[in-house]
Each structure stands twice: as C-alpha cells, then as structure tokens.
Amino acid sequence: MPLRQFLIAVPNGHLHIPILVALVMALVVVVAVPTSSTDADAGPPPVAVESAAEEPTTASVRLRIGSDERLVETRAATVGLLLIEQGIAVEPGDIVYPARATAIQQGLVVILRLTRDVIVHEDEPIPYGSQYRYDYTIPLGQKVVVQAGANGALRRSYEVRTVNDEETIRTFIEEETVAPTNEIALVGLHAEGHTLPPPAEGQCRSNRAVWATYYTAVSAGGTVTRTGTGVFRGVVATDPDVIPLGSRMYVPGYGYGVATDTGGGVIGAHIDLAYGANDVYDWGARHVEICLLD
User: Fold this and answer.
1) Residue 69 to residues 95, 97, 105, 140: CA-CA distances in angstroms?
2) 104: Cβ–Cβ under 8 A, 6 or more apart, which residues?
3) Domains identified in the chain and CATH numbers
4) In this predicted structure, what is the pLDDT of residue 43?
5) Edge-to-edge strand ranges of the sheet holding 183-190
6) Residues 273, 214: contact at Cβ < 8 Å?
7) Which residues does the chain have with pLDDT short of 50?
8) Helix or strand run (H / E) with residue 109
9) 3-state DSSP call for residue 275?
10) What is the side-by-side order of every strand in the sheet holding 59-65?
11) Going by C-beta distance under 8 Å and a sequence separation of 6 or more, which residues neighbour residue 59?
12) Could you give the 3-state DSSP secondary structure of residue 36?
C-alpha cells in the first residue's frame, strides 16, 4: 500500500512512531536485496589476450636479369617488395615477370628486362705542345716553366640504350673540341753553360749515341738560328724528328746545349754544335753519347 494511502487509512491521519520505524526498516531490506542472483555471482570481466604475430617465412627465389641469375633468400611478400629489398628500381618500359603483385612462393623465378637510355661521353686526348722562349739571363741548359701544359680532348657524345646493361643502340649527338693548353718555358742560353758541372746521376731522361760535328755563323752562312737565336756555344742543331727543338742536353767534352737550330745536313742521329766568333773551337767530329735532359 502506498504511504499516502496508508496515512489516509490511519485513523485521524496520525501515524504512530513505531509504525513509521517498521516501514523504514522494510524499505532498507528491499533495497539491499540483489535484483538478480546471476549478477551477484558473476566474477571480474574477462581480459582479452592478443595472440602473437606469426613470423614471415623465408623463401628461396631465383632472380634473373639477362644472362645473370642469382639465388636470393627473401621474406618479402610480393615480387614488388622483393625488388625493393634487392635495390632494383623499375622504370617505365621495364618488364617484370611475373607481375609485381604476385605473391612470393618457394622456387619462384623472377625475370627482369631493364631498359635504360643514357648519355655517354667519349674523350680522345689531344696532347699539348711546348713553346720555348730563350732567355740569355738563365744559365745554359736550364729550363724554367712559366705555364704548365694540359692536354685537350675531342669529346664525342652519344645517346646509348642498354637492355640489362648490354648496349643495343648508339646514336651520335655531337662532337666538341677542348683545345690543349701549351706549355711555355724559358730556356737558358747564357754562354757560360759549358763551365757548369755535368748532370747528377738520375737527371738524364735518356742517353743517345750521336755523330757530333761543329759549326759557326760563318760556316752556316748566317748569324740567326732556326728559332731566332744567335750562333754561339750552347746552341745545337738537330734533326727535329729525332731530337725536338727546345730539348736540353749535355754533351761530354762540350757542355750543356739546347736544340735551337736545324741544318740541311743534320739528319737522323746527328747533331751540330755551335761556336761563337770568340769561342775556342775545341771540338772535332766524333761519335759521342749525349744526355738528354728533357
């Protein structure tokens, strides 16, 4: 019975204290009783346990690029991942078989056809030459380089197509010449070069056996050499095809000399040693082994 109806039912609407206490105790008992025995007996909620991830399996795969084939061990899931694993970049126009999305399986053979277009440069060297300037303040036989020489090059450019690193097509593009830089050197012509000591051991670039004669400005019929110097001791006429002009040498019994002249009768292994008007002619024609310094 609702409390209000109960109060109404009590005579005169007055509720005695003992009755009120009994009602409150009854309500407490009702609230304390569990609504379901099932809920009361249930334990703590279950805890979910994650299962450990399975380790990827290793497969043996044959990777073939042209005539090259190698066996690789991989844990890649697909052919595409295998190529990434192996550091192989696939570009448009390349062929991959089977397709990159194919799953890796034991014993699979992966075949690649890699096509590349590259620009190739080929250089043909152009040797530099030497230019000599004669200096009468530098001792005879000495050489001072004032500009180093550098080889040039004839550069040809091609567009080259390769398939699996083997050239299949070569197309010429252009040709470019890089001119060499000639060496410039000062060559000493100081007339006292014959008084200098002979070269030390190891200073000779090479030795050459020659027939050596001598000449003067009078016998040569002129006072200016082929390279524009005067005729005096230390000037040597040579065959440029054998001993190039500008070459420095040491002639035992004569001293240091520089190839600055040529002569109609100086052919092959023949040198002609110059003497000035005031020099002592102390040379007689003979065979001699000379030291070429450069």
Assistant:
1) 16, 14, 17, 68
2) 59, 61, 74, 76, 77, 78, 79, 81, 82
3) 3-32 (no CATH), 59-113 (3.10.20.90), 118-184 (2.20.230.10), 197-292 (2.40.40.10)
4) 55
5) 130-139, 183-190, 143-147
6) yes
7) 1, 3-4, 6-10, 13, 15, 28-33, 35-40
8) strand 109-113
9) strand
10) 68-74, 59-65, 109-113, 95-97
11) 73, 74, 75, 104, 105, 106, 107, 108
12) coil
* Angstrom distance (rounded) from CA 119 to CA 158: 6
CA–CA separation, 89 vs 106, rounded Å? 23
pTM, rounded to two decimals: 0.46
* 184, 190, 192, 196 alpha-carbon torsion, rounded to 10°: -20
pLDDT tens column, 277-288: 877 888 989 999
Q: Calculate the alpha carbon distances from 2 to 5, 6, 29 in Å.
A: 5, 6, 17
Handedness of CA 7, 10, 15, 21 (dihedral sign): negative
**What are the tokens at 103?**
């799953």
Instruction: Label the pairing between strands 59-65 and 109-113.
Output: parallel
**How many angstroms separate the CA atoms of 177 and 158, rounded?**
15
